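Supplementary material to the annual report.
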Amino acid sequence: MQDQARELLDRYCNNSDHDAFTTFYRSQSGKLWQFLRSRGCNEDAAYDLLAEAFMKFIQVVCNDLRAPVALLYRIAINLHIDNYRRSQSNPVIINNDLVAAHVDEANNFIDQRDYVEHLMKTLSQDEQNLLFMRYWTGLTHKEIAGTLDMPEGTIRRQCAAIIRKLQQRWQEEDHGA
Amino acid sequence: MAHNFPVPDEAQLERLLVSVYKKMPEPEFPRLARIEERLSRNLPPRTSRHKVNTIPWWIVLLLTGGIAAATWWVGNGYNDAIKVNDNDVTNVEDEAIPQATAPGRHDSQEQVHDSQHDESNQHESPIIYQREP
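Predicted assembly:
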């Protein structure tokens, strides 16, 4: 998938093939929007950040075509962080209904998938980013390392550690039953 | 927070993670299409990047040919040209010597040829006038 993305953007950068860029956008925009939603953006903010991320992406992607998807997620993460910092300065209105819904969800697990979703929410933001990029976007350890500015070995160890952490929490709560 | 699910191994957990992501809400297609349209307006015009720093092939060919010819001329070609000129001078001298040293032989050959020609003319020509004895 990453090779295909690279090939499309190579055609866009070297032959000005706009159709190739459109194909790349269609293959990535949905997942990027889901990524932003999973990071806590509301629907509208996710669309806005998606548009902004792609705008910045087209300005810089042709400078280095080695890991374009990783670059796109890096831009999106940075924009999300900026957006989060801006929102910190504004007053936050807490929706009590939503909080109650989350509590209910946590106490009623229909199946293993619901339970995993609950466990994922106990992870830190960085850990959730890592899982998303590894298991949903399909980035390699090396590409994630490029996205997060970290050594590849560290990313590999962190991925293994997160899986172990989830198994450990699963076991602890099972024993608690 | 209690459950009765058995602890999954690594592969099972990875499959469960993917299934969680699959359950996530999908974006609305019309809104993505609007962003796509906006992006396409902001893409650089076609072929603008392609032409940057691109020299036509025939200019490159001409320049390469010119440089190669100049190099040949300055290197081997010029020396050969000098040698050819030297050879021409010696050949001219060689050819000039026989012409200068054997003119007599050439002249005698011509004289013999002329006398033979006169004799044959005398035999073949009709008698126009003959002195009376």
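The two ends of chain A are 42 Å apart (CA to CA).
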